[in-house]
Amino acid sequence: xxxxxxxxxxxxxxxxxxxxxxxxxxxxxxxxxxxxxxxxxxxxxxxxxxxxxxxxxxxxxxxxxxxxxxxxxxxxxxxxxxxxxxxxxxxxxxxxxxxxxxxxxxxxxxxxxxxxxxxxxxxxxxxxxxxxxxxxxxxxxxxxxxxxxxxxxxxxxxxxxxxxxxxxxxxxxxxxxxxxxxxxxxxxxxxxxxxxxxxxxxxxxxxxxxxxxxxxxxxxxxxxxxxxxxxxxxxxxxxxxxxxxxxxxxxxxxxxxxxxxxxxxxxxxxxxxxxxxxxxxxxxxxxxxxxxxxxxxxxxxxxxxxxxxxxxxxxxxxxxxxxxxxxxxxxxxxxxxxxxxxxxxxxxxxxxxxxxxxxxxxxxxxxxxxxxxxxxxxxxxxxxxxxxxxxxxxxxxxxxxxxxxxxxxxxxxxxxxxxxxxxxxxxxxxxxxxxxxxxxxxxxxxxxxxxxxxxxxxxxxxxxxxxxxxxxxxxxxxxxxxxxxxxxxxxxxxxxxxxxxxxxxxxxxxxxxxxxxxxxxxxxxxxxxxxxxxxxxxxxxxxxxxxxxxxxxxxxxxxxxxxxxxxxxxxx
Length: 572
Fold this sequence. Notes:
- By secondary structure, the protein is an alpha/beta fold.
- Helices cover 26% and strands 29% of the residues.
- Strand 27 (548-551) and strand 28 (554-557) form a beta hairpin.
- Helix 2 crosses helix 3 (102-112).
């Protein structure tokens, strides 16, 4: 029998029994044909691979991530994750959609068409995330219908405004959910349900949201699985107690691993989904169970019946590992063709601009001055209570702290408060909104950081301790049509330009990774104490992530879903 490929003497992972079996594998027309004891006497193959007792596992599948979080293009992203064994992903481009609306989704899909990694896109469901911010675009029900009619959309992406779902039956989130359930009843619906329990959690599930990828606790994990939710475990949820729970309880069908957001320097240095598999194994999970959670269960969650297993008629996406417990990757095959060989590293091909011209001119802001970081107050002179956004070094969640600040000559004396200033500027040329707040905790203690990479509205966000540094950082970002800049004492310490929509670069992976590494180091040199300072600061403007955040409309009490004042009378 003629086949395209024959792999001899390899330990094949059988997903159905969660075990490895020594076998030969035949591949034909990009799919597995045979797994068993028959070999070269039966199959005449164009390519014969000596397995040498190595381990064969399915290509890894990541069903919840945002390419924009890596700040590189789909083409560069594909090149980067293939080297880590990821062959199929489900990206949700709600970052680009917040900048350009449905056009942003279409253009991300177009930019993915020639990628080796299979990319099945999720429909952004929460653009904007709430009505408490200004974005460049939105996704409405008619846009969802257009995407379903013209593109291959695999699911409704994470429904983020859980407050809207619970409290407003006629709100946008519920209208979208009702439309999906009636018009596209087979479409998978993804969720975002941080900290919710009991009736609130069950209301979301009742509305059709049956997954969660946010930071898990044992209490939340147990409640979600008991109520029928599928759990997508990202690295920040891989605490010893959570992983031990997953090991000790029969919940293997109810969770998978996902990356959600990975910084470029981390992608190059430590890996992608393979990093989570390695980490799970090191934390005591069997390799068989860890592989299952990165291949079989994610494929089943997204109803991709043609992949995630090594079996007849399944797509021949597979990895060859020289060591199972360290998950040391030798080679990656996509559709039966080699896509990566550890012993023959390839350079990233040159990429050309892939986006429309106006995607490179999306930051419509004039330069700012130090005076733009003077906070005018409507309060009469005196001392007032103030809300402070407190950064937490183990989470992207923040806390609300009440402190005191003084208003003098109609100006908030924020530099005397003991806290930094956080400011945001609407950058789409729609209304010129700006808002100010105070910030403390595990953030910078001097200098300034400015960025347009600020979830999910991607307005210009600036944090700092003196107006001069804040203006310099902001103007560097504005001049580069978006990006990140770190400044201290009038000197630029790090700068990453993100000219595509203010959130992506078309530079090669390794160059971007080095710049991101320098950016992270510069932030830490100013006192930022966080496991991921870039993601931490970029979520200060995410009004669906607890507890106190900021948008161009003002400070947001996330739990209440409303704008709250920076200052309040001390007797209240």
